[in-house]
Design a protein that fits this description.
Major role in the synthesis of nucleoside triphosphates other than ATP. The ATP gamma phosphate is transferred to the NDP beta phosphate via a ping-pong mechanism, using a phosphorylated active-site intermediate. Its EC number is 2.7.4.6. The mean pLDDT is 97. The chain has one domain: Nucleoside diphosphate kinase-like domain (Alpha-Beta Plaits), CATH 3.30.70.141. It has seven helices and four strands. It has a four-stranded antiparallel β-sheet with strand order 2-3-1-4, sandwiched between helices. The longest helix is centred in the last third of the chain and has 11 residues. Helix 3 packs across helix 4. The chain starts with a strand and ends in an 8-residue tail after the last helix.
């Protein structure tokens, strides 16, 4: 096992419903350390840049529109196998298919408004974390 860092976003749908505290507590209760946190609102251009890997997918425009529709909470979590374990905690992309007790099952409403985003690989985390946080903003 290795200690990893991963990015997690609380999406606008969950922020609108004031769920960020519950989501943070849920992840902390699983033993992860929160090493960076900020609330911000992406412009559509920033959302397009962040999700550039999906630019050829049919949902890209809708995703970018949604992610720039309201505030988000960006976080960096640290822990053993954080990337895969936090993805398990988040659950399947579609809340209807997510396991009971996962964040998306608890707080997602549909495949687009599914409450959270998380890095899907070490390579993604290396790109996604610095998109939102400078080294000075990540507390050891």
């Amino acid at each position: 096992m290795s200690v990893e860092r991963t990015l997690m976003l609380v999406k606008p749908d969950a922020v609108r419903r004031n769920l960020e505290g519950k989501i943070i507590a849920h992840v902390q209760e699983k033993g992860f350390k929160l090493v960076a946190l900020k609330k911000l609102k992406l412009t559509k251009e920033q959302a397009q840049q962040f999700y550039i890997v999906h630019k050829d997918r049919p949902f890209y425009d809708e995703l970018c529109e949604f992610m720039s529709s309201g505030p988000i909470v960006a976080m960096v979590w640290e822990g053993e196998n954080a990337i895969s374990r936090i993805r398990e905690i988040m659950g399947a992309t579609n809340p209807e298919e997510a396991e009971e007790g996962t964040l998306r099952k608890l707080y997602g409403t549909n495949v687009g408004e599914n409450a959270v985003h998380g890095s899907d690989s070490p390579e993604s985390a290396k790109v996604e974390i610095p998109f939102f946080f400078s080294r000075l903003e990540i507390v050891e």
